[in-house]
Amino acid sequence: MWLLVSKIIRQSFIDGPGSRMVVFLQGCNLRCIYCHNPETRGLCSACGKCLTSCPAGALGRQELSIVWRAEMCRGCECCLGVCPESADPRAQWLPAGEIYRRFAADAAFLDGITLSGGEASRQSREWLPLAGWLHNDGKTLFVDSNGMMTAASRQEVLTAADGVLLDFKALDRRVHRALTGVDNLPVLEFMAAAAAADKLYELRTVIVPGYTDAPDSIAAMARHIACLPGRPFWRLIAFRRHGVRGDGTGLPEPGGERMEELAAVAAAVLGRGRIIVR
Ligand code: SF4
Ligand code: SF4
Ligand code: SF4
Fold it and tell me: Model pTM?
């Protein structure tokens, strides 16, 4: 099984419990206006537009594919802004076994792997073997998802993953549509299913002034979370313009005081210990 990987972080402490390797999978089914990793959303069509943008000559063509030479790459990211597909020419196809091999090399310092994205559930069939290998080692697999997935992927995620980090972008359907272009019903259904399966580890909400920073909305979301089985954490993430492209670049950023005010609203319902502000 091969996975299309945009990036691997060898160790993170904010992507699930403990110390984790994070594998960012390429491709997303949403187009959120505040996306700060827009280059992880699309799939390369090999159009070649990025080839001349690379000052290091790290990009080339081999037959019908684009080739990235890691050893020549300076990490300048000049290739990202020119891509009409919101793809990343540096994304690599890796066998699931190679990802496990990299994890195993650092396993003494790691509690497991978190699959992120893009949207990790889109490659659920391909990463399923990873779950078994990790479980054999006494390690865990977590999935960071936007909640929009097929019934088959939902089944695979809820069966194979030990926990889910889920975007809770908005409870209000109009706000969710404005941010993502789609209705939030599938997300709320997945949230309920993950909670019922005792796999909902953390919910994540990006605070965007004018969209998701109304105290009444935060209180309503907190009450929604309080009614779920289990005790998931809720992470409130301040919107930052860094990396954002298109309409989202004009959005305002919330200040620290506003974030603390909203955290207090959430904590009044859920308790301070379940609220994380970032
Ligand atoms: S779900 Fe995440 S990766 Fe996908 S478009 Fe939205 S913010 Fe970006
Ligand atoms: S980040 Fe992109 S443009 Fe920059 S050196 Fe690497 S491949 Fe070339
Ligand atoms: S990464 Fe984007 S610009 Fe580069 S070849 Fe692929 S689709 Fe074209």
Answer: 0.96
Cα gap 239→145, rounded to integer Å: 18
| Dist. CA 237–CA 79, nearest whole Å | 28
Q: Do residues 82 and 134 share a domain?
A: no
**Per-residue pLDDT tens over the stretch 103-151:** 999 999 999 999 999 999 999 999 999 999 999 999 999 999 999 999 9
159 and 201: one domain?
yes
| Binding site membership of 35 for ligand 1 (Cβ less than 6 Å) | yes
Residue 173's H or E segment, with its range, is helix 173-180
For the CA of 59, the nearest atom of ligand 3: 4
Closest-approaching ligand to the CA atom of 59: 2
Residue nearest to atom 4 of ligand 2 (CA): 76
Q: Tell me, what CATH number does 78's domain have?
A: 3.30.70.20
